[in-house]
């Protein structure tokens, strides 16, 4: 990339459950220190960032999947208006992965997103329970993820890089010990971060880091 600001696509950072835009402070600083223009970096701050227990029922101080997707949409529109660019790159973590995918698939994002770089995702669910918590956006057998994973999983023209580990993504574990229930199957597995149709999968012991984001960004622009 050249030093001209217009040569750098705007990057929208999408945080996860119970986080804030501040999650990305270190990564944004690293982007800037490596020459990425500050006016091309836009962190989303999702109001009431914790997911509802049941996505279809209002819950105080928690957001629905639609609330979260619309927060991304607002920041993307701001990024496009301020940068005068045609599209953004989304970098997302944890809940931000399905939020970004929901925005792209269901809220007009396909025409506004050049690429997605997704890390620490649970595309197939933190747990898979056909007879339990059907309203949870983290249930791989629930309504939200089943609909999100219907073809096309990734709209045409939106390349995706997945950053993940082989076995160490905390919420992609077949055993429930990470929620204090060792020996209880979750129904999920180590491949929950994978996504059918992705362009590139970068497997590491950890699932985030500015070097990995930079590698994914270079792959798409």
Give descriptors for this structure.
alpha/beta, six-stranded parallel beta sheet, two-stranded antiparallel sheet, 5 helices, 8 strands
Topology of helices and strands:
Layout: E1 11-14, H1 25-33, E2 41-43, H2 65-83, E3 88-93, H3 95-106, E4 113-119, H4 143-148, E5 160-164, E6 175-176, E7 181-185, E8 200-203, H5 210-220
Parallel strand pairs: 1-2, 1-3, 3-4, 4-5, 5-8
Antiparallel strand pairs: 6-7
Helix pairs in contact: 2-3
Task: Please characterize this protein's 3D structure.
26% of the residues lie in helices and 16% in strands. With 221 residues, it is α/β, with parallel strands linked by helices. The strands form two sheets. A six-stranded parallel sheet has the order 2-1-3-4-5-8, with helices on both faces. Strands 6-7 form a two-stranded antiparallel ribbon. A hairpin with a 4-residue loop joins β6 and β7 (181-185). α2 (65-83) crosses α3. The longest helix has 19 residues, at 65-83.
Strand order of the largest sheet: 2-1-3-4-5-8
* Secondary structure tally: strands: 8
Structural class: alpha/beta
Sequence of secondary-structure elements: EHEHEHEHEEEEH
Instruction: Name the poorly predicted regions.
Output: none
Number of helices: 5
The end-to-end span amounts to 9 Å
Précis, in short:
Helices cover 26% and strands 16% of the residues.
């Amino acid at each position: 990339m050249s030093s001209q600001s217009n040569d750098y696509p705007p990057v929208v950072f999408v945080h996860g459950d119970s986080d804030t835009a501040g999650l990305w402070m270190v990564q944004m600083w690293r982007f800037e220190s490596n020459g990425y223009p500050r006016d091309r970096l836009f962190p989303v701050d999702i109001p009431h960032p914790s997911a509802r227990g049941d996505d279809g029922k209002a819950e105080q101080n928690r957001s629905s999947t639609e609330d979260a997707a619309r927060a991304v949409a607002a920041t993307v529109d701001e990024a496009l208006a301020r940068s005068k660019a045609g599209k953004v790159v989304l970098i997302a973590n944890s809940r931000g992965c399905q939020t970004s995918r929901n925005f792209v698939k269901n809220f007009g994002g396909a025409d506004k997103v050049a690429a997605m770089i997704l890390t620490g995702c649970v595309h197939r669910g933190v747990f898979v329970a056909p007879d339990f918590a059907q309203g949870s956006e983290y249930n791989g057998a629930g309504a939200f993820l089943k609909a999100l994973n219907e073809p096309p999983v990734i709209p045409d023209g939106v390349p995706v890089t997945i950053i993940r580990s082989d076995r160490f993504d905390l919420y992609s574990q077949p055993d429930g010990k990470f929620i204090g229930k060792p020996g209880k199957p979750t129904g999920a597995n180590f491949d929950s971060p994978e996504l059918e149709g992705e362009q590139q999968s970068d497997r590491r012991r950890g699932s985030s880091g500015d070097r990995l984001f930079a590698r994914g960004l270079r792959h798409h622009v």
